[in-house]
Amino acid sequence: MVERYHLGKDTVVRLLFALSTSTLLSLSLLAAEPEVPSSVSYQLSFDNVVHHEAAIQVRFDAVNSTHLVLSMSSASPGRYAPHAFAKNIYDLKAMDSTGKALPLQRISPSQWSVAQHDGTVIVQYRLYGDWGDGTYNQIDRTHAHLNMPATLLFAENYAKHPATLRFKLPDANWKVATQLQLQADGSYIAPDLQYLMDSPVELSAFSQRSWKVADQQSEATIHLVLHHQGTEQQLDSFTEKAKAVVAEQQKIFGEYPKFDYGQYVFIADYLPYVDGDGMEHRNSTILTDERSLKEADYAQIETLSHEFFHAWNVERLRPADLEPFDFQRANMSRNLWFAEGVTNYYGKLTLSRTGHFELQAYLDKVVTALNKVQYSPGRQFFPATGMSELAPFVDAAVSVDPTNYANSFISYYTYGEVIGLALDLTLRTEFEGLSLDLLMRQLWLEFGKTGIPYTEQDLEQALAKLTNNPAFARSFFSRFIQGQELPDFAALFAEMGLQLTQAKPKQAFLTSATLLEQNKQLKVDSNTLIGSPLYQAGVDKGDLLLKLGRTKLKSKKQWDKALAQYKVGDTAELSFSSRGKTYTTQVTFAADPALMLTELKDATQKQLHRRQLWLGSLSNT
Ligand SMILES: [Zn+2]
């Protein structure tokens, strides 16, 4: 999952899936598998797409309990916050094999109990969905974009049973994109509940490109399915970028994951009415963006790169504290800095190696993350493992009351990305020939490929083994992962022929909070940061800035103009109003803390070579 502007999914119990199958397809593409008898069968029809509704029927056969308990998930694999998916289903009816109505009792907000059945229970309900991302559903005239936890009622008793799905497509041009397996009778099958819930489905008149990949371990077909309003040429260009990402990442681990059915599917919706997101699954990923490929100048490749890296890191190389995934509650892990953060690091590094990012563009991405971690006050409250544990509160979680996350939280995506960077540069400069690539490959062979979930201690021991230096591993984990220190990045970057400097050392600075012009007033529109001059002056979110020195403040322009009159270390009078009362105080201008990362003019051959090994394509090594 990408960070929830965008964010993302990180679990599904792997072991259960070894059985499963996956395919993408329009019916004509793939030889269908013979039918597997299943005691759970779903039918999804879409006769009311104009009002964002689907009609769903599920049939349970061989029901051997007096009461059949039906559940709607309240968590989505890969999202850490709880979700009330049951809120969007209604018109629920139950009947037996003869069609006789059965009593249905709601036993909890997301569960129902059905009694008096004849061994068969058939349930019908309506589903509403109009939010196209990696967690929810969108049903309209153009597509049915379905995330299974938000779509399907299930019975826990049938968790280990295969389930079939049949889609009644409302439009002859629509096709089916999914990692579920097509059967000869046109239905799709999942071997069990976990795989079913992990299998999003796109039904639309999408375009598609496919290519084969192979290595000493396996061969697979990669499908890129795109529902968009752009051109086939744009899809061709995007596919070339995706092919480069897929090939480059294989070189880090030395092999592709064994995709359960020899298929992997990128399911992309780049449409003005979806919400930007990315969500990885075992043999597929959901990619959504409200911008077109042209509007975003193919920036969507960043999310694709992040999500494909998850095919190894988290879908198969998995933290033990996320196992097994519980559909009824939020799932917490201390290792999201690694599962998401290191994936964020490689998502961008891959794009430097494929040449999508020019050097300076990549360095700007790196320093943006570094500035967030270096200057966010949150690091004084939690280390990276602690930030990981806060995911259930921050990962697309909804709450009414405001938070102070700007001061108390650093995303484990960004924090982990910076730790990945620190570890990679440290390994490359202190241990000849070593790199984070080699650590990822070692972890893959030991835990990912074997399907053994890793613990925090396993990660440290793997580093000790790679470096043959347990003291180094202990120190790195205790200082930078379980501790709140940051390494000397300026020294590490210098080894790569790069210089880390303050971008505007002489610029007077009071705050990085968002300032909003409203009714000819200047409002502070985000939390002021602990340690910043405006925070020390007692100004915070919601307050109005009235006067700085002799300048009355009605606009951002006047604020910038007033600031420009001062030097670092100067003091000035500031008046502001808070809760309707006016206050006047003294502020002292600090230097703008933002860092920048640029090339060292006179880098040595050794430094340039090291940088090439780091940022260049692995196919050159
Ligand atoms: Zn992710």
Structural features, described:
It is a single chain. This protein has 621 residues and is an alpha+beta fold. Among the domains are: 207-318, Neutral Protease, domain 2, CATH 1.10.390.10; 336-498 and 601-620, Neutral Protease, domain 2, CATH 1.10.390; 508-591, PDZ domain (Pdz3 Domain). Helices cover 28% and strands 24% of the residues. The chain has 16 helices and 29 strands. The strands form seven sheets. Strands 4-7-2-1-10-13-12 form a seven-stranded mixed β-sheet. Helix 10 packs across helix 11 (456-467). The protein is globular. The two termini are 30 Å apart. The model is unreliable at 5-31 (pLDDT under 50). The chain binds zinc ion (ZN).
The SS-based structural class is alpha+beta
How is the CATH topology of the domain at 336-498 and 601-620 named?
Answer: Neutral Protease, domain 2
Number of helices: 16
Radius of gyration: 26 Å
Strand content: 15-25%
| Biggest sheet strand line-up | 4-7-2-1-10-13-12
Please give the largest β-sheet: 7 strands, mixed
Q: What is the CA-CA span between the terminal residues? A: 30 Å
> How would you name the CATH homologous superfamily of the domain at 336-498 and 601-620?
Neutral Protease Domain 2
**Small-molecule binders:** zinc ion
Percent of residues in helices: 25-40%
Q: What is the total tally of β strands?
A: 29
**CATH class division of the domain at 336-498 and 601-620:** Mainly Alpha
Average pLDDT figure? 93
The coarse overall form would be globular
- CATH architecture label name of the domain at 336-498 and 601-620: Orthogonal Bundle
Low-confidence stretches: 5-31
